[in-house]
Design a protein that fits this description.
261 residues, alpha+beta, 3-stranded antiparallel beta sheet, 21% strand, globular
């Protein structure tokens, strides 16, 4: 039996949200909170979903074995899901944390281009990638290009199918059941892929992020076409090094979570 936490009902901050949106709000909160188990009152506070709603969602997640519960009133992402096994059905987002912020910022400074981090979203019929973080330093040209781009292009930079561009293709090439094309084999061989970005005249280079032997996101470097083409190997090396450090941290965190569970 699950404990009934005594945390008071939060204010109705979830008014106007659909039932599905509330589920995603709770799951995204757990992802952002990182590995391990978290008290119900913190989940409620950070998700702004009422206690009764959060409790129902969490109990359903435990019943479906996507979440784990430990008394008194602590929940977390189940190890099989957190490790993003190929047969796990929930792939949400890379948690926002200081390591991700540091590496993305460091990559931007090292390349003097725009850097981005993406998470794999594999919960529907169109596997996609979602931007989680970006750093552009003093690149006011990126700000201007983004603001003047069409709405569809701006949306695609944030969220798009894996087939759309470099970061998505870097993820797709390493998924079970990926198409066996010449391009996929080339990505596997090179370790990175560069394509047109959603913004005109800007290219984007993507490398995979790993947790263990499973890809779960991508890092990207984006810049003007001539800079990217001239320095692609240098930028790829920098992105791969950053991705390796982040992946190593995720592996350590996953090991700590397995010990805790």
């Amino acid at each position: 039996m699950l404990d009934n936490d005594t945390t008071e009902e939060t204010a109705a901050a979830d008014e106007g949200l659909t039932a599905h949106m509330r589920v995603y709000r709770v799951l995204e909160t757990l992802n952002a909170m990182g590995p391990g188990l978290h008290p119900l009152h913190r989940i409620i506070s950070q998700s702004s979903v009422t206690k009764s709603t959060a409790h129902r969602i969490l109990r359903a997640g435990v019943a479906a074995r996507h979440l784990v519960y430990r008394a008194p009133g602590r929940y977390g992402i189940a190890p099989d899901v957190a490790l993003h096994r190929p047969d796990a059905s929930v792939h949400l987002t890379l948690p926002h944390n200081s390591a991700l912020d540091r590496e993305t910022t460091a990559l931007q400074r090292q390349t003097a281009q725009v850097s981005m981090a993406f998470g794999a979203v594999l919960i529907d019929d169109t596997p996609s990638r979602l931007m989680l973080h970006h750093a552009y330093g003093r690149r006011t040209d990126f700000q201007a290009a983004f603001q003047h781009a069409a709405v569809d292009a701006r949306m695609a930079l944030r969220y798009a199918p894996l087939t759309a561009d470099g970061p998505g293709l870097a993820i797709l090439a390493h998924l079970d059941g990926a198409p066996q094309s010449h391009r996929m084999r080339e990505i596997l061989s090179e370790g990175y892929v560069m394509t047109q970005s959603p913004l005109p005249d800007w290219l984007i280079l993507g490398v995979p992020l790993w947790r263990g032997s499973t890809v779960y996101g991508a890092l990207a470097v984006m810049g003007h076409k001539h800079h990217m083409e001239r320095n692609r190997r240098e930028y790829a090396a920098a992105a791969l090094a950053s991705a390796a450090r982040l992946s190593a941290r995720c592996e350590l965190a996953s090991g700590a979570m397995r010990v805790a569970s």
